[in-house]
Amino acid sequence: MNMEQILSLGPELADFLDEFADCFGRAEPRCHMADYVRGQLSELPRKSVEPIALAAGLAPRTLQEFLRTDVWDHPRLRDRVQQIVVRDHNGPQRIGIIDDSGHPKKGRQTACVNRQYCGRSGKIDNCVVSVHLTACSFDTAFRTMVDSTPYLPQCWHEDRERCRRAGIPDDVVYRPKYDISLEQLDRAAANGLTFDWITADIWYSAKPRFVAGLLARRQRFVLEIPRNLACWSFDPGSQPSRPASTAENLCRHSRHVHQQPWVRFRIKDTQKGPMVWEVRAIPVWHQCEGRVHGPWWLIHARNVLDPTDEKYFLSNASPGVPLESLLHVAFARWPIERCLEDEKSKLGLSDFEVRNYQSLCRHLYLTQVSHLFLARQTSRLRGEKSGGHAVPGAPRHQRVDRVPPTAERRPPEPSAAHHGSHPISSDTQRNRAA
Length: 434
What we know:
Blueprint: H1 3-8, H2 10-18, H3 27-41, H4 49-55, H5 60-68, H6 74-88, E1 95-104, E2 114-118, E3 123-136, E4 143-150, H7 154-157, H8 160-165, H9 177-190, E5 197-199, H10 202-205, H11 208-216, E6 222-224, E7 230-231, E8 245-246, H12 247-253, H13 255-258, E9 263-270, E10 273-288, E11 291-303, E12 310-315, H14 323-330, H15 334-345, H16 357-381, H17 426-433
Parallel strand pairs: 1-5
Antiparallel strand pairs: 1-3, 2-3, 3-4, 6-12, 7-8, 9-10, 10-11, 11-12
């Protein structure tokens, strides 16, 4: 949205912010929330406290105190975002996407800052890392961030005096990112926000405790996995002496795979043309936290334009779910990347210049409020645009004129995800049933 559109939405923004009125005991911080959100939605080149405050005619210290010391219920603000998504954007086959993001920062005083991998800079950097949960409609047209949690590095956890100086409560301790993501799913469920699918990248799927946590929550998932993930093409209980193989070896050498032809699927349309991958799948068993689970689906996919570009996915979906649906979810991680891109480039997610832990959390939650409004209005204004805004970017090497002609399959409508036959060979179906 441009500034003219934002200004024209003044009454709608006011009504939207009224949804969060009970998060504030006094009028002053409630008004400051409106100032902060308007500043994030504005065209300010930097969305930190000082320029937002000056644009609103306030002293910077006023908004600094709003984030750090004013009394208001920021966890309720986060919960309200989730409740609004449930109420106004409830649809079949909702996808939950998990990822983390780094925010480069200088110095050592900002809460949770540490030298660690930062995706934004693509290297080990001094940064704050936050874990995020995005809710996405099955068609990916509506997507918004619904939870954001700062990651406390272990070196901070072991230095409680440093934590106290940064305002980090004693009950905030080191937790792996995958444990944080599972807690986010629990919070969302407590607010009625549940997901028909969960997807995450290799880092999360390689952690047995994360996968076990999804299973404990009876959560259906499609996860990209490392090629060396151990699994069996048979129930190991029947042949306990045979060791597990890797996902890559099974996909390359299993006779069940060789019996199948590659099937092409048109995964999605990008700004530079369609993305087409070839796919084969077999049933497998996988050991997680000392227990063998299966049969699950192991999916091997390769890019039609570059067969060396391969991905492996694992899903606990039932046999009746079409492979098109599994692939649609498997390749649906881009909405969280787009959400992070929008929050960083348009809303100032990484522009925070606060050091206090509570200020950091409040900034993250307020950014979720701003992003939800942006997502709702973008969805409403979609018909006014020429298209392409909701389409993911394509790899640079993929061009529409380089996609070979094929009768690609498209993802089915959400209602088809529980019906129809699986587009895998009948031999594979029988092997799985056995």
